[in-house]
Amino acid sequence: MSVPEGTAAALAAVAARRPLLVASDYDGVLAPLVGDPGAAVPSPGTAEALARVAAADGVTVALVSGRGLEDLRAVSGFTGPYRWVGSHGAEFDGPLTGDLAGRRDALAGQLAPLVAAVPGARLEVKPASVAVHVRQVTDPAAATALLASADAVADPSLTKKPGKAVLELAVTDADKGSAVRRLRTEIGAAAVVYLGDDRTDEDVFRSLGPDDVGIKVGEGETAATQRVADPAAALAVLRLLGDLLA
Ligand SMILES: O=P(O)(O)OC[C@H]1O[C@H](O[C@H]2O[C@H](CO)[C@@H](O)[C@H](O)[C@H]2O)[C@H](O)[C@@H](O)[C@@H]1O
Question: Which cofactor does it need (predicted)?
């Protein structure tokens, strides 16, 4: 799997910048999308490629996911010296305190009967949000109707986070763009490389500057300046970056 020429050139240009922040989304980038969120394991070789990037002097690797932090650590199996951001930025390095849990649980109580009525639909209760998944709903009309009903449940205090075959309703207004800006500031990064595949990653892509490299993984509208096809190509990007940084 090779990296598109323009993306390889952009990575070569950024590889000498220090400090360098290399941040990535998880699902759809480091792990292929599958029906069961609990079964979304990294593509073989990904852990090694990330570790090699993180071993370079002056380089920080961050994992920036919509998943809850504990879930992200468990499902990825990654153990490197990384910065961990979960719940779309609401969990920054550490878990959330419990004060949001009451609102989240009340929301889960509202959504549960809607989800239970649609065969194949799945409710995921996360630290700061509740996700309604329709990837395994075989009737497209039922999937669309369920997402619309879930959307209608959201009062203005909730943040809607639509994604791939999922709608999340979050009890915080955190987003990945703010999280990456915060990491950039903490690290004093001279440049940022970010890989993402979904709508919530667009907050990051929009926050990037001319010295950064935003890489959209897969199809769809994007503010990223680079694009690769799929998680296999994202792994090729990480491997190339590891070579350039070595
Ligand atoms: O920000 P990410 O790391 O990309 O996480 C986004 C959501 O990923 C998971 O859902 C997505 O992946 C599942 C497994 O492949 C798939 O079944 C589902 O359709 C996708 O939407 C995760 O379950 C969510 O909690 C994350 O917010």
Answer: Mg(2+)
Please give the distance, rounded to the nearest whole angstrom, from the Cα atom of residue 175 to the centre of ligand 1: 15
Tell me the domain boundaries of the chain: 5-90+174-245, 98-170
Query: What ipTM was predicted for this assembly?
Result: 0.98
For the chain, list residues with pLDDT below 50: none
Q: Which fold has domain 98-170?
A: Alpha-Beta Plaits (3.30.70)
Residue range 5-90+174-245, CATH number: 3.40.50.1000
Q: Which of 68, 43, 80 is nearest to 168 (CA)?
A: 68
Q: Which residues are catalytic?
A: 25
42 lines ligand 1 (CB under 6 A): no
Model-level pTM?
0.96
